[in-house]
Amino acid sequence: MSIIIYFALIILIPLWAQFKVKGAYKKYSKMASSSQMTGAEVARKILDDNGLYNVGIEETRGYLSDHYDPRSKVVRLSSDNFFGHSVAAAAIAAHEVGHAMQDAEDYSFLRFRHALVPVASLGSNFSWILILIGIFAELSGLLLLGILFMAAAVVFQVVTLPVEFNASNRAMEQVVSAGIIRNDEERETKKVLNAAALTYVAAAAVAVLELVRLVMIYTGMTSSEE
C-alpha cells in the first residue's frame, strides 16, 4: 500500500502544480493591467530602468515557453505574453527580466546553477540506466554510482528554487516601483508568480522523494550482502 501511495504522490504533485499554474495564468491573462503595457513593453521598461540596454526581447513559440537566455542575453516571451496587456503577461515578463538582472549582477545561486548544468544533464541522462542495472543485477556499487549521478540532478533542482523565488521577488519590486501595476493589482500579480513557483517546488519535492527511496533501496541491498 505504501508504494502505491508513494507513486500516487510523485504523479499527483506535479499534476497539481501544473493545474495551479494553468488556472492562474488562464484567469489573469484575461485581466488587463491598468498600465495597458504589453509584456514586451514591460520587459523593455524594466531592463532599461536597470541599465540593461544590451539585453534583447524576442517573441518565441509555445505555451508558457517564456525564458531568459543567458548566452544570447535575450528575454524570450511566448506570443500571448509578448503582445498581451494582461496582469499575467506583465508578471511573467517581469519574472524573466528578473533572471536577466541576476545574470548582470552575477547572482551567486544563478552562477552555481549554471555550473551544475553539465553534471545535472549527465545525471538526468545516465543515472537511471545505472540504477536499473544495479537493482536488477543486484550490483550495489553500480546502484550507488547511479544514485550519485542522480543526486547531482537533485541538487540542481533544489538550487533552482532560490533562483526562481528571487526572480519573482525582483519582478514584484520592479512592476510596483515602475508603476506598471496598481496597488490593487499586486495580489493578482503575486498569485501568478506564486503559481509558477509551485512547478519548481513540485519538481524539487519529487526529485528529493525519489532520491530518498533509492537510498533506502541501496541501504537494504548492502545490508543483505553482509
Structure description:
This protein starts with a helix and ends with a helix. A hairpin with a 4-residue loop joins β2 and β3 (74-78). It has 226 residues and is mainly alpha-helical. The model has no long low-confidence stretch (mean pLDDT 91). 75% of the residues lie in helices and 6% in strands. It has helices spanning 2-28, 39-49, 79-83, 87-105, 108-136, 140-177, 186-225; strands spanning 56-60, 67-69, 74-78. The radius of gyration is 21 Å and the shape is elongated. The chain has one domain. The chain crosses the membrane at residues 6-25, 115-136, 142-163, 192-218. It comes from Mesobacillus selenatarsenatis (strain DSM 18680 / JCM 14380 / FERM P-15431 / SF-1).
Structural topology:
Elements: H1 2-28, H2 39-49, E1 56-60, E2 67-69, E3 74-78, H3 79-83, H4 87-105, H5 108-136, H6 140-177, H7 186-225
Parallel strand pairs: 1-3
Antiparallel strand pairs: 2-3
